[in-house]
Known about the structure:
Elements: E1 9-14, E2 20-31, H1 38-45, E3 50-55, H2 57-73, E4 77-82, H3 96-104, E5 112-116, H4 120-132, E6 136-139, E7 152-157, E8 160-165, E9 171-175, H5 176-179, H6 184-195, H7 197-211, H8 217-233, H9 242-262, H10 271-285, H11 293-314, H12 320-324, H13 333-340, H14 344-356, H15 370-382, H16 388-394, H17 401-404, H18 408-417, H19 427-433, H20 437-444
The protein binds zinc ion (2 copies).
One zinc ion (ZN) is lined by residues 146, 193, 273, 293, 297.
Amino acid sequence: MDKLFYFQKAAEIPCSCGKTHRILTQKTMVDHSLTEQIPSALDQLHLGKKCLIVFDENTYHAAGQKVETILNQEKYKTIPLLLHHNSPTQYLEPDEDTRYQVETSLKYQPDFMIAVGSGVINDLVKFTAHRSHIPYVVVGTAASMDGYPSPGAPMLVNGYKITFEASPPTAIFLDLDVLTKAPLNLLQSGFSDLIGKTTANSDWILRNQLQDEYICHYSWDIVQEALQILWESADQIPQRKSEAVQALSIALLNSGFSMALVGDSRPASGAEHLIAHYLEMISLSRGEKTSLHGLRVGAATLIIHKMYQRFLEEIDSIDWEKITSPHPIRVNKETLQEKFGPLYPLVEKEATQKITSPMVFTDSFKKPGFTNRLRQMISEKLFAIPDVEQALKRSKTPSTFEELGFPQSLVKDSFLFSRFVRSRITILDILDEAGLLEKYIEEFL
Length: 445
Ligand SMILES: [Zn+2]
Ligand SMILES: [Zn+2]
């Protein structure tokens, strides 16, 4: 596979995993001077002539203003929507207020919508477009996350983040002249989010091998190539060199496409994302600062990666039989109620299942050679980036929770309790049930 491969148009892929994958995004472009090409690209997509363009103050200056001007020159009728920041955090959040701002603008009856931005603006428009059956395209302003082509939109509902199913954009435009000017911390956030694919995919292997969960190796193939270029270009991130930003953009696109292939976040999100999610959730509920998504993921990945390495060293002594049979567990309902506070009702279902019934495995672990096979398969994912710590260092990415401003006690809680947020198991579940989690936290945190 070409290292700079990505899906430039919609595709149907019969796969060895048994599924026929579908890429629904009809046009994806990554190029210099791309903004000028947007009107002709839109003409080819026949989406209509009246569009709602959504941006905030930052993305208006980064690209929105230019997109609007160019479209007006080409006889498109544009309805601009400047999103206002009303959230208590320093970032625009996909909350009730911003959703309302987008939804009320639909009264102008646009034929399609344009999200100008990365992260939250893309999510908001994706969410609204899906619910109102209006197509949307996205003009990215930073290589900061992998959610452009993914089939989900994370939204804040009463302060709690829920990922809603939502159709991917009809087109994605990533103008390298815009992306290379994005703030460095956004690029580093995208970079460190990708580092997390190593542990996310290790978790997927765990579930596949222990629980016979469906897995698609093709979705890994397209990400693995991208991780390779990322490792090679890490040093160029701090200078925002064009080649590095291009590699990063394509790597992020492919991570997003891997989710689009599979239909959910399994190829892109494991224990490292649970920890990032927990820290965000608790910080938001306390009205505290959260930091950028990818940076939290990167810091969590560093530690999960070390835990995985130690786990692989100790794997022969794991008592799988004991893990799957009823046994007293470290956590009870009262502890979780205390830790999650007002958010507890939102996680109660998943949490209750985890504290009341042991994990269910197939009997694959009884087969000869099981641990060797598992060790080998996980190592392949873990070391797709030869040295994650070096990669983060070379890109000068802040990668400790301390640098990101999280108190040690909250970080410790995130390793102990984030696993109760989701039913899908990760290395955190295995370590906890094997009685190793607290020991590993002592050692690596
Ligand atoms: Zn992520
Ligand atoms: Zn597949």
